[in-house]
Design a protein that fits this description.
Length: about 150
């Protein structure tokens, strides 16, 4: 399993405030998990990473083998379909894919490291938190804080 930790001061402070106000992060984290799952899946259509950078195009070899130049979609779109979130305890959220090749697509890899590949695979990050995601997360947390104060 590959782990990418996202530590953003604004989000962490907001979550700590929510924890103090309600003692229960699960409802907010569930909603955050839903929006991150959806935004991650949308990256497959826009072919961009959470940082807004466009993914590298498929190589000519891949285009010939797959018959298309749409990175990470494959013939079935299984990787995109297999994005899930999971609450861990009362105060943590993870999002990812159980697909065994997800890490290779996220981070890339070279034929020298993985001889079974037909060529080098560039990183095409699909997991992560974009600026829009961050704003949405803060909006969700602030709504829960507002509701807790009323």
């Amino acid at each position: 399993m590959i782990t990418i930790e996202y530590n953003d001061r604004d989000i962490l402070e907001a979550l700590q405030n929510l924890q103090r106000a309600t003692g229960n992060l699960q409802p907010a984290l569930t909603e955050i998990g839903e929006i991150l799952t959806e935004s991650t899946k949308q990256r497959f259509g826009s072919q961009t990473g959470p940082d807004g950078q466009r993914w590298p195009a498929n190589s000519l070899v891949t285009i010939e083998r797959k018959g298309r130049d749409q990175p990470l979609t494959g013939e079935t779109g299984k990787l995109m379909d297999e994005i899930y979130y999971n609450l861990i305890g009362n105060d943590a959220l993870e999002i990812g894919s159980p697909m065994e090749y997800a890490a290779m697509q996220q981070f890339g890899g070279g034929k020298d490291e993985f001889p079974y590949l037909w060529g080098d695979i560039p990183a095409r990050p699909f997991l992560g938190v974009s600026e829009d995601d961050k704003n949405e997360i803060l909006s969700i947390i602030n709504r829960y804080l507002r509701d807790a104060r009323e």
